[in-house]
Amino acid sequence: MCGILAVLGCSDDSQAKRVRVLELSRRLKHRGPDWSGLYQHRDSYLAHQRLAIVDPASGDQPLFNEDKSVAVTVNGEIYNHEELRKKLVNHKFRTGSDCDVIAHLYEEYGEDFVDMLDGIFSFVLLDTSDNSFIVARDAIGVTSLYIGWGLDGSVWISSEMKGLNDDCEHFETFPPGHLYTSKSRGFRRWYNPPWFSESIPSVPYDPLVLRRAFENAVIKRLMTDVPFGVLLSGGLDSSLVASITARYLAGTKAAKQWGSQLHSFCVGLEGSPDLKAAKEVADYLGTVHHEFHFTVQDGIDAIEDVIYHIETYDVTTIRASTPMFLMSRKIKSLGVKMVISGEGSDEIFGGYLYFHKAPNKEELHRETCHKIKALHQYDCLRANKATSAWGLEARVPFLDIEFINVAMSIDPESKMIKKDQGRIEKWILRKAFDDEERPYLPKHILYRQKEQFSDGVGYSWIDGLKAHAAKNVTDKMMLNASYIFPHNTPTTKEAYYYRMIFERFFPQNSARLTVPGGASVACSTAKAVEWDVVWKNNLDPSGRAALGVHLSAYDAEAPLISNVPSKVIDSIPRMVEVPGVAIHT
User: Fold this and answer.
1) Which segment of 129-143, 262-276, 335-349, 420-434 scores lowest on mean pLDDT?
2) Does the pLDDT of residue 576 top 90, yes or no?
3) How far apart are CA 83 and CA 295, in angstroms?
4) Is residue 342 annotated as involved in ligand binding?
5) Amino acid 477: pLDDT
6) Is 206 one of the annotated binding-site residues?
7) Which residues are tagged catalytic?
8) For residues 522 and 532, what is the distance between their CA atoms, to the nearest angstrom?
9) Does 275 carry a binding-site annotation?
10) How is the chain split among helix, strand and coil, in percent rounded to 5?
11) Burial code of 543-567, b = ≥16 C-beta within 10 A, e = fewer?
């Protein structure tokens, strides 16, 4: 992922302002270590830190149209750029970059071209003919983006909060699937799929249609001119991504340049059973597998860097980001610049354990809609920034807009978890890739139930974090938490510890407002808390209720949640697969 920074209409075209923009742009250099660019037109500045994935030789930014009257700084990948170029027959392109189509599409279609782009992107487009500008972010928010406003009337855009927090009077997360234009001075949603209204779909489940849609989503993400690999944790989602990539890699441009044998990557605490699961899948697929280990102390030592880069104080996001952050550094050291990952599946298919309690298909569907809309605040944030911290790009085929349209048009009755019919979580995804003639994965892996937690080994990571926080946060400090942090008040010492670090890096009120909060059970939305009366009395985002759900869902004699040892309960903030990370965080 590249880093973009734009300062628009700042009423200052001095050399000092240019120097300041360059200084702020360098805060994003980790995202794009390959090249830096800065374009100035009057009192507007477009800066770019490039991570070269497609056309490394000539695709430096900002990009321009033929007469340089339109300038663009972009972070992202446009997977259908070759198809779009064919529609722009009267245009001359300066580079082979996939993002080069944006300026030319604007010339042809104005601001209405954004929904023609198939990919992940954040961009700022400056039209020097009237000094107007357009800002846009991809449909789901796979790329990170922030917007801020200065007292001088300027508008600031940055891939990360650290690029603008010190210079804006107010800033916020740029909403996914939206445009912001200088002419309207407001946001407009350009992404309007059928599922967004949350009306209940009725298309019958067809496993082959779902399979082909996901295969297409993976295949289009093989567009690269640099070495790449897949993140593989041994869970269902990352294993399917790896299987499809291995199956279709041969014959692609990437294979001709870098070879047809796929590389896979996994990180975990030494001895974790999930490391063994990842190795088993890698052996089955024939990948060149790279297994990295980290210690609890390694993770603790990285916490401050993780919070600085991920830009959140959300406990579960920090826990999950830390091993991914450490793994990304190792991957980059091998010369790899892009990885394909498995985020998004649980949100689309109702894969989290609390979905066992969904009362009906209508509630389940609405919850999945809410979860997808919130991905940019959680898993997308983690995947984008944990990898970008080391100049690595993560691509997420489950969040392909065409695949989401297919998956979210299916009658949600097919997504309901029904133990008596043998339908475990994400059953329709598993069934779609159950091929007897050419198996994608061994049966026991394809139908492996979602793990509660890793036995013993996973606890040491969470327990280590809790113990470290307890050394740095006293009981007396917790008594004043609501006065020190009135917004999203931390309720545990671990949360308080993370919040202190976050506020040191990002002390502005605007910064703390970018992090979500509210009632949750194991990463559910607040609405889903109403699914079980017990949850209303035991709100616990750490997964306290989800553990009870898991036990009762598969064992009629399962103990009540109150009988589960607190150490076990507190170890599980989310039952979620983090691709490439062989611990359940």
Assistant:
1) 262-276
2) no
3) 47
4) yes
5) 97
6) no
7) 2
8) 13
9) no
10) 45, 15, 40
11) bbbbbbbbbbbeeeebeebeebeee
How far is the C-alpha of 130 from the C-alpha of 396, rounded, in Å?
A: 37
| Residue 436 to residue 439: CA distance in whole angstroms | 6
Per the CB < 8 A criterion, the answer to whether 49 and 190 are in contact is no
CB 174 within 8 A of CB 134: no
Residue 568 scores a pLDDT above 90: no
Structural domains in the chain, sorted by start: 3-192 (3.60.20.10), 195-545 (3.40.50.620)
CA distance 73 to 32: 13
C-alpha dist (Å) from residue 253 to 12, 216, 318: 46, 16, 36
Task: Write the CA distances from 283 to 231, 251, 286, integer angstroms.
Answer: 14, 22, 5
Confidence of residue 527 (pLDDT cuts 50, 70, 90): confident
Kindly give, in sequence order, each residue whose CB lies less than 8 Å from that of residue 518, ignoring residues fewer than 6 positions away: 526
Query: pTM above 0.70?
Result: yes
Q: Is 562 annotated as a binding residue?
A: no
| C-alpha span between 223 and 77 (Å, rounded) | 9
Beta bridge partners of residue 393, listed in sequence order: 338
- Does the annotation list 98 as a binding residue? yes
